[in-house]
Specification:
Number of helices: 4
Number of strands: 0
Largest sheet: none
Helix content: over 70%
Order of helices and strands: HHHH
Shape: elongated
């Protein structure tokens, strides 16, 4: 039962990670001096914030289930 839940959580984490926006969208800007945009203060809002929090929550669930299965 826990193995099935762990598999589902794993797949959801992969999907949500792929859905997240790329914060460093252009790696060339780091070299050319686009650090103001890269390190600027930007707040996640709406769906981005929801996806980030859901990914973190599923990561915690994944960790707990993995620990339970390991200690069994």
């Amino acid at each position: 039962m826990l193995e099935t839940i762990l598999l589902i959580v794993s797949i959801l984490i992969i999907i949500l990670t792929l859905l997240q926006s790329n914060k460093a969208s252009d790696a060339g800007q780091i070299i050319t001096g686009g650090n103001d945009r890269l390190f600027g203060v930007t707040k996640e809002r709406g769906m981005e914030l929801f996806i980030t929090r859901l990914t973190a929550s599923l990561g915690a669930v994944f960790f707990i289930i993995s620990l339970i299965l390991f200690l069994r």
